[in-house]
Every structure is written in structure tokens, then in C-alpha cells.
Automatic annotation (TrEMBL):
GO terms for cellular component: mitochondrion. This is MaoC-like domain-containing protein. It comes from Ceratopteris richardii. It comes from the Eukaryota. One of its GO terms (molecular function) is (3R)-hydroxyacyl-[acyl-carrier-protein] dehydratase activity.
Length: 189
């Protein structure tokens, strides 16, 4: 059994410390493995109300110039009482939520289905439920169920799933990708 697989089963700080002293695994790597393995069943939540200024900024950044996102009269002409929040802007709530619980994690995959539009002023609640954790080489893999609701009506805005990779301390998860697969930084553009 690889060290991180066993480390993920250790619960007390004393067990983790002893294990780290007996192996080449550091205490922080053992703590990460134990913390993530104990996350199964955990539910993460975040609420947010998108303002028109956020939609305008996202439109510029994304290049999505559809006026239903930025011009209230265009949204009204299509039957909406306010501008429609970009679906992918709603999805950013998950990134914020996940990175606060699993700092340093990277998304391996994400699958989203857009169900009902969210509008400026809607109180949204993003929910990520940890379904499963697995030990991978030098990292831990976490499967999540994702949902975003309108708080006032309970309407489902989007749903999906994601798998993230949580590195053990000191391990660069981007090493698993080739240089051609890693997007350039803003300085390289």
C-alpha cells in the first residue's frame, strides 16, 4: 500500500505524526491525505447575488457580447425582468467554493447542465457535495456533485459534476500535463 493511501486512513494527529516519522512521507502530506479523505459527504455552500457591473466585466473578459447580459431593455425584449447572468459566470461560484476548501487544487474535469436562467438580483446558492475521494500518485482525487439554485424560488440554475486533484504538499499537479497542454500565463500572451 502506498504511503498516501495508508495516510488517508489515519485520523488523529498522533497517528499522522507517527506515520510521518516511520516513512518518507512528511507530516503535512499525511495531514492533507487525512483531511481530504475525511471530506466524503461534506457539503460546501456559497451564496451570491450578481450585480450588473459583474455581468458587464465578465462580458468584456469573456468576449460574450450578447446584449441580454448587459442591456436591460434587450433582456426585457426577450421576456426577462432583468439581465441574464452568464451561465459560466454562475459556474465561477463553484471554483470559489472549492478552492476555499481545497486550496491548491486543480480541476481535472467538469460537466455542467444549464437548467434555468439566473437574473441580476437573484440570490444564488452554489452547493458542492463531496461524493468520493481517491488516492492517486502524489495527490488525491475528489469527485463532487455541483448544484446552483435560486434561493427565493428553489429553481435549479445549473447542475453537474467535477473531479479535482488535490496535491500533496510540495507536489506540482501540473507535472501530469505536457507543456503543450498547460495554457500560457497572461505574461506570455
Amino acid at each position: 500500500m502506498r504511503p498516501l493511501r495508508l495516510a488517508a486512513r489515519l485520523r488523529s494527529p498522533h497517528e499522522r505524526s507517527l506515520f510521518a516519522s516511520w516513512t518518507s512521507t512528511t507530516e503535512s502530506e499525511v495531514a492533507v491525505a487525512a483531511s481530504v479523505s475525511q471530506a466524503e459527504g461534506e457539503v460546501l455552500k456559497k451564496e451570491h447575488i450578481f450585480a450588473q457591473e459583474e455581468l458587464s466585466a465578465y462580458s468584456i473578459l469573456s468576449g460574450d457580447s450578447n446584449p441580454i447580459h448587459t442591456v436591460p431593455s434587450a433582456a426585457a425584449a426577450h421576456g426577462f425582468s432583468a439581465c441574464v447572468v452568464h451561465g459560466m459566470l454562475c459556474a465561477t461560484l463553484f471554483s470559489s467554493l472549492i478552492s476555499s476548501r481545497f486550496p491548491g487544487s486543480v480541476t481535472e474535469s467538469k460537466n455542467l447542465r444549464f437548467k434555468e436562467p439566473a437574473l441580476v438580483g437573484d440570490r444564488l446558492e452554489a452547493i458542492a457535495k463531496v461524493l468520493r475521494t481517491r488516492v492517486a500518485k502524489d495527490s488525491l482525487s475528489v469527485d463532487l456533485k455541483l448544484e446552483c439554485y435560486k434561493k427565493e424560488t428553489g429553481g435549479l440554475v445549473l447542475e453537474g459534476s467535477s473531479t479535482i486533484i488535490v496535491p500533496s504538499k510540495g507536489h506540482n499537479v501540473l507535472q501530469k500535463f505536457t507543456d503543450s497542454e498547460i495554457p500560457p500565463t497572461s505574461e506570455a500572451l
